[in-house]
Amino acid sequence: MPTGDETPQTVSVNFLVIAGGGGGGAPSQNNYGAGGGGAGGYRSTGSEGSGGGGSALSAQSVAFSTNYAVVVGGGGAGAAASTAVQGTSGSDSSFTGTSAISSTGGGGGGASYNSSTLRNGLTGGSGGGAGGNNSVSPTTGGSGTANQGNSGGNGLVTGSPTYASDFTGAGGGGAGTAGENSGVDGTFFGGDGGNGLAWSFDSTSRGGGGGGGAAGTVTNGDGAGGTGGGGNGAIGGTTNAGNGTANTGGGGGGGSAGGTAPNKGGGSGGSGVVIFYYSDAFTITIGAGLTGSTTTSGSNKITTITAGSGNVSWA
Predict the structure, then answer these.
(1) How many distinct structural domains can be found in the chain?
(2) Burial of 306 (C-beta count, 10 Å sphere; 0-12/13-18/19+)
């Protein structure tokens, strides 16, 4: 029988916590592009580190038969076509182990041809890209959260008479790199989304930013979504904005208004994810309210929680 001085058994758990990605913004009229959504915040114990150049976190030693709370954030909605509003930011994800780990939802992409405030990308885990405009005032990408992600790209001002790069959307920030400014790849081209990071325990890239929407006068100028689940930007009248990939926290692509109907709204952000990596000597219980699965990798297990809110425990 117990003597009262036994040390409770613990499990060393590595983890990846990614929030939901931000949705892409939408323009109001022909020939403008909106900003791509930022990726959800990225916090990791892997050798790649956390987002935004942050250091890797330490594995947590969790106690046997103890409940630990997990929340997986959803992706933000893309703005509807022709509404000239910003995309919705993603929702936070968290793992409350021996210490609380939270990732911030990605920022929504900026609108275009509207007030200066709505043209800017929203702050988030990674910031949303700026939308296009028709003035000499640059638009600004949203800031990323320290040790989680990077900023969205800015709208450029090329000067009279065309303001060509002003009309296009910038890319949303990614976990690994910032979103690209508008017009860098060509006149009226949307900026590319920032790239994500590959988790060292499964070599899968996640956390890519959404690409900016093109101005509608081009046929191939959508911003590319960042590696790791970012959606491509739209080309008005031609190509829809891409959604961020589910369970990557990828940002949605920016919308676009073209010279011919129909205009295109922003893509929705991808949902977040919480992943655990631990010895196969132990068994996890995924509680009610959570959706997840477990696979074996060598002498370790990888448990992926794809949706919901609830508790996990180990034995």
Answers:
(1) 1
(2) middle
| pTM reported for the whole predicted model | 0.94
Q: Is the pLDDT of residue 236 over 80?
A: no
Eight-class DSSP state of 277: E
Determine the structural domain holding residue 92 and report its residue range: 14-315
228, part of any domain: yes
Structure tokens at 193: 């989304």
- Chain position carrying tokens 């594995």: 59
- Select from 170, 58, 60 the least CA-distant residue to 111: 170
Beta bridge partners of 42: 18
**Which pLDDT score is estimated for 28?**
80
Q: Does residue 197 belong to any structural domain of this protein? A: yes
The answer on pLDDT for 314 being more than 60 is yes
In whole angstroms, what is the distance from residue 41 CA to residue 26 CA? 23
If one compares 31 and 111, the residue with the highest pLDDT of the two is 111
Dihedral Cα 24, 28, 31, 36, nearest 10 deg: -10
Whose CA is closest to 73, among 312, 313, 305? 305
Residue 67 near residue 311, CB atoms below 8 Å: yes
- Distance (Å) of CA 24 to CA 33, 45, 302: 10, 29, 31
| Residue found under tokens 């949705």 | 23
Is 7 inside a domain boundary? no
Residue whose C-alpha is closest to residue 175's, from 210, 149, 153: 149
Of the pLDDT bands very low, low, confident and very high (cuts 50, 70, 90), residue 161 is very low
